[in-house]
## 1
Amino acid sequence: MSKILILAEHDGATLNPGTAKAVSCARAIAEHGGADIDVLVLGDNVDAVAAEAAAINGVSTVLATSAPHLAAPLAANHGPELAAAADGYTHVLAPSSTYGKDVLPHAAALLGVNAVSDVMAVDGARQFKRPIYAGNAIVDVTVPEGLMIAGTSRSASWPAAGDGGSATVQAREAASAPAAHTRYVGVEGSGGDRPDLQTANVVISGGRALGSAEAFDIVYQLADQLGAAVGASRAAVDAGYVPNDMQVGQTGKIIAPDLYFAFGISGAIQHLTGIKDAGTIVAVNKDADAPIFEVADIGLVGDLFSVIPELEQQLS
Amino acid sequence: MTILVGIKRAVDYNVRIRVKSDGSGVETDGVKMSINPFDEIALEEALRLKEAGKTDEVVVVSIGSNDVQQQLRTGLAMGADRAIQVDTADELQPLTVARIFKALAERENAQIVFLGKQAIDDDGNQVGQMTAALWGRPQATFASKVEVDDGTATVTREVDAGLETIEIDLPAVITSDLRLNEPRFVKLPDIMKAKRKPLDVVSLDELGGHAGNAPEAGHHAPPAPRGGGIMVADTSALVAELKNRGLV
Ligand SMILES: Cc1cc2nc3c(=O)[nH]c(=O)nc-3n(C[C@H](O)[C@H](O)[C@H](O)COP(=O)(O)OP(=O)(O)OC[C@H]3O[C@@H](n4cnc5c(N)ncnc54)[C@H](O)[C@@H]3O)c2cc1C
Ligand SMILES: Nc1ncnc2c1ncn2[C@@H]1O[C@H](COP(=O)(O)O)[C@@H](O)[C@H]1O
């Protein structure tokens, strides 16, 4: 039987949905010989977040560790703390977010093991599938007996485990000393109250073709009309049309909305790897040979500057 | 001070990846190989720090068989002062690579170990974090801006929530994200000059060898294809199709 510890992701106030997705990944492991699934919440004053984690279906115990030096999500502090908490577990998992990817490999190294990045499927308690080469190959990975398993769960591959659980919340003392060599200054988000790119049912993305930050407004307008989140290609981010946290792709966010619109995006493999799990992909591009049409479920050759206003009108 | 830059030889990002028919791996025969794009960005940043007088020396490091000398020479042509090849024919796991960087950082008294945030072949995104953990030094991953001052660095990091800023004491590990800079092009005279720059070869064993048992890669498969797409003629047809499928 496995004993799985999941590192919760949160912003101090609410739990990030990546956590409940990691619980689904853990439950898939549990199908191979059973498992106890615990969640570790690191922060300062984590009671509310711990209560949220306790409600996830399938979780047995939530370990809540509050300490001032854990308030900021610094790998220099969270890595050693996770490694210390992992004692006695067979598996340690984190969501494959920038937080999870920062902290988990750090902890894995302290535990003396390699990590399995982006677990997308579970074939056994020690057997996983993960994407490599920007998702152009899927490899089977086996962790040898006797080694602790550390991994990140690829959020786009797992549904969020539902609510209705009633795990015990247990206070756990911090075991690590604060790292004096790393200081948190702050985070600047693009803000706004549009739906979150990683959890939205509908995502509308724009590419280089938009041409300017001002022109991107038509994408926002359509998104607001549909209650959609807004994404972008790397080219649009690099050109400064939109902030970095909107980038979709191999090195941006990997998303799995029910419906994805790509306006003026050519469909480079690095972009496609971020949208392959979408339910339906709609592509609008004026070049009939654009590679985006090879993956699109519904393609339209046309000028986005006329298609978007038409869509707005016809969908209103 | 010295900056070590890890550059991995990887399949060029423009190559269309094909999985071998026997599932044993990805086709690399006759395929264009380049410096991993993130590592090129890390190297560019190190060179700019040198040009700004923040470091005396930039050393490129690649771990692999003699083939990696090609990428090391490119790194030297971009402006690195010297190169180190850690010679091994084995496929390496991130933990072993991290141990090598830690050993080299100590041996070379490096102030910054500059790596890419991820290698675009294994998409691991692990080595920088592991190096920092083993070395007991700060990690600033996914950097989109780096300012170095008197023994500290202020690093802006690309995170899911936006841009995070942290301050770290040196020595430290920094890993580059895409928007840190745009790497320079190599000029022909620099390629000639690079041939005369020092390239040392050290063995893996000299630096501590393998980190022991590691996850084993088995069968490789191409991703499930998405198929059955249709083209529509105009916006009205698109709307009709979306309505038909109950998507709007
Ligand atoms: C290591 C690495 C990682 C990367 N990671 C990512 C990533 O995470 N995400 C990502 O997106 N990219 C990534 N890239 C970049 C990627 O290779 C492409 O360069 C990028 O996706 C291109 O963006 P684009 O499609 O907006 O621009 P382009 O490729 O320039 O395409 C613009 C498209 O717009 C169409 N168009 C122009 N005008 C109109 C119009 N009026 N109406 C309709 N269509 C129009 C054109 O026909 C064209 O197809 C990465 C690259 C590297 C090397
Ligand atoms: N064989 C290697 N030689 C040199 N540097 C490497 C090697 N493997 C990994 N690295 C460095 O570690 C970074 C992250 O790799 P990874 O964790 O495998 O995605 C890369 O961008 C390189 O800077």
## 2
Amino acid sequence: MKIMSKTNLKPRQVGPPWYFVGCATDLVLFFLSSQKENILREAAIHKRLNSPYVVQFIDFFETSKNFYLVMELYVFFFFVCLRAIVSYFLFLSCKG
Amino acid sequence: MNGGELFERIEKVECFTEDDAVAIIMQVAKGLKYLHDNGVVHRDIKPENLVFGNNSLTPIKLCDFGLSKVLDMGSTDTPCGTVGYLAPEIAKEMSHTFSVDMWALGCVLYSMLCGFPAFYDQSVPILTEKVKKGLYDFPSPWWDAVSDSGNAHTHGILVAYPLLRLQPRTW
């Protein structure tokens, strides 16, 4: 599962077209645009792909803090996390 | 994915045998053909974005579509990608098309056969200039063990002029 935090989202900026992120050869050049648009576009493109040579898209959703992109073989881990969270809240409600 | 990234495998084994490299590249080329047939250009093909389903060499799958785009008009002008795998036409800020993915695949093949990247420099501006020129070599002794066929295939993909570059359907 790919988790993208909403707190780090940057609005569309005006400036030079090249934006450098990272260091050394792992620099990624981004054309400045809304990061939220990019995340939604990534999910939309990934959702329409279905091939044995592409990691399978499972689900995309957002909470108040994060975007979640669920992909194949991460599903089991996702449900383990979900179950742990639900158990935790049940524990809190019983304790309360 | 259970098998990890191709990047980790390259770090571990340093260089692949030609048979293993071809087996991996063929799968990625099929993945790219599927993307391109559906009008999608990935634009960030690199060993970190190629993941194995298990501990063997197959299956390998494409992931991370954060920079991908649907090419309705057949080409795009938006420059993006990872510098070491950037096609010369992107580095020159020219319009580009699906063939940028094949250039990046050529860079991946180069790394797999010798264990180091085709284009590298600590300085990003210098690295970008190298990419713009599209000049690379096969230094000895690292490339001595690679066959003429391996050299020819790498040369066939890493062609600076996009129209002359090998395409996924040719694999």
